[in-house]
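In practice, a research group might receive sequence data for several interacting partners and want a quick structural hypothesis before committing to experiments. The following worked case mirrors that situation: the sequences arrive first, and a predicted assembly follows.
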Amino acid sequence: MKLAYKIWLDSDGKAFGDGPYELLCLVEKTGSLHQAAKQMGMSYRKAWLLIQAMEKRLGFVILDRQVGGLSGGGSKITAQAQEFMKQYDIFRIEARHALEEIYGKYFGVTEQEEKT
Amino acid sequence: MKLAYKIWLDSDGKAFGDGPYELLCLVEKTGSLHQAAKQMGMSYRKAWLLIQAMEKRLGFVILDRQVGGLSGGGSKITAQAQEFMKQYDIFRIEARHALEEIYGKYFGVTEQEEKT
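A structural hypothesis for the assembly, expressed as tokens:
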């Protein structure tokens, strides 16, 4: 038996979670929402709608759109969104540690630990 | 913005969570899986399959079936399952407190707290 969970931030609907976090990390890495969506096996349209919904629910701009240029433009994560991503990452790591500790206390070690 | 999450116990599939916990509480209260399923708006067949899957995944018997008698029989939670339910209840309360504390640390108070 092992612990399973999903955590997300809600604001009249799903505002942020691991999927969006991964998408934004890929945008940072590739400098392109097109590329980021592609690497996640997600349509560009879906990624775009997701960003729009997140911006509305979180209340700040996530993507700086840069149109034109030799590369045909790209997308950059705003400073505010970068800060938010850092907070979210620390939050989810701390949440994971806490949940694993509490699970261990009541139900013993997890399957992963049993195997080592 | 507020914290949202789902926690469950997994053993090659969903083994236990809040839904099953609620179902078993109702079986304890009513002494009948029929009644418990009804109160949860669940078909008896679905409740029965859920119990069977849980017993398989958790590895112990959950329901003592009592057939016959004036009342036409009923269902009782086994002592082992009662113990497990207690553990699960403490586990989920502790998990909730930990997650709320960590959420508050990184994202401020929850919507519920803001309203009070």
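Before designing any experiment, note the following. The interface with chain B takes residues 1-11, 14-15, 57-58, 87-88, 90-91, 94-95, 98-99, 102-103, 105-107 of chain A (CB under 8 Å). The two ends of chain A are 15 Å apart (CA to CA).
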